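Revision sheet: C-alpha cells.
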Amino acid sequence: MAKTRSDEQAKATVGGGGFVSRFLNGIEAAGNRLPDPAILFLLLLVLTWIASALLAPIEFAETDPRNGEPLRIANQLTGAALTTFLVQLVPTFTGFAPLGVVLVALLGVGVAEKTGFINAGLKLLLGFTSRSLLTPMLILAAIVSHSAADAGYVLVIPLGGVIFYAAGRHPLAGISAAFAGVSGGFSANFIPSGIDPLLQGFTQQAAQILDPDRMVNPLSNLGFTAVSSLLVIGVGWYLTDRVIEPRLQATPIDGDPEEMPKMDELTDRDRRGFAAGVGALVAGLLLLALAALPAASPLRGPDGSLTSFAAPLMGMMVPLIFLLFLIPGVVHGYVAGTVKTHRDIVAGMTAAMGTMAYYLVMAFFGSTTPTSAC
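Predicted:
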C-alpha cells in the first residue's frame, strides 16, 4: 500500500530509529526460528520427563503443601509411569478444562458472526466516532472483536485503514492501531467472552494442584482483563497518534486515492436486524436477572449467594455466553435476511468450529504436559 521512503529519509532514522529497527528485526528473526507452539509443548513434555528422572533421587527439604511430607519428584521415565501416561492420554485430552468451555462458547459466537450481528455492531461502533477519538474507538472495537473467532483480523484490521483514510488520516496508522488491538490486546476485554472460561480453566487446574477441591469463579480474571483493555487502549492511542502516524506523514499512498476501498454501509435491514438482536440480548439479560432475583432462586447457592462457587449461576456461565450470542445472532439473521433456514445457523456453528482446528492441536499437546509433571 505504501511506497518505501527515500534514501534521505532512511538516513535520517539511522540514529535511535535505526538501532531500534535492527533490534526489532533481530527479535523477529529469532522468533521466526522457534518451532511451532505445538512442538514447543512436545519439547517441554520431553524435558519434563528428563528433569523428573534426574531429580527423582534427590530428597528435598521442602514439604509438599498437599500432605506435609518431604517433597519428592516422581520419575516419569519408568515403565509404570509411561504406561499410565499412555492409558490416560485420551481422558486427559478430553478432560482438559479449557477445551470444552471454549468450544461451547464459540458455537454461539459463530452464529452471531455468521449472521452479521457482530460485524454490524463493530461498524456502528466505528461509524459514529469523531475524528479525535477515532484511534481509541478503533482499538476498543478490535478488543471487543475477540468475542468472535476471526472478526478482528477479517473485519476490523482492514476497516481500520479504510476508516482512517476516510477521516483524512494515514491508512497505515489505522491498520497498525487495529492490529495492535486485535493481536496485542488479544486476551484483554471488558465483556465476558470465550476467553474468560479458557483462563478460568487454566487457573482452576493450577489451583487444584495444591487443593483438589479448589473451585475458581469463571469470571475470576474479568477484572484483570478489563483493566488490561484500558491499558492497551491508552498505550495504543498514544503510540498511534504521537509516534506512528507522525512518522508516516512522509510515506505516500500507492495507487489512486479514488480507488481506495470504502467501508460497506449498513443497510436498513442490517440496522433493523441489529436493533432486534440487541433487543433480544437485553430481554435475555432481564429474564436472567428476574430469575436470579428471588431469594429461593434455583440460580443461587445454598448460602443464597449468586457468585459463590456453589451457585448454579456460576456453573452456567459458559452456556450463558453461548445463549447470549446465539439468540441475538439468530434474531438479527432472520430480521436482516442473512438467515433463511435453520441450516444457516448450523453452518455458522460449523464455521466457528473450523477456526478451532489448530486450537484442538494445541490443546492436545498442552493438556499432556502439565499432567506428566504431576
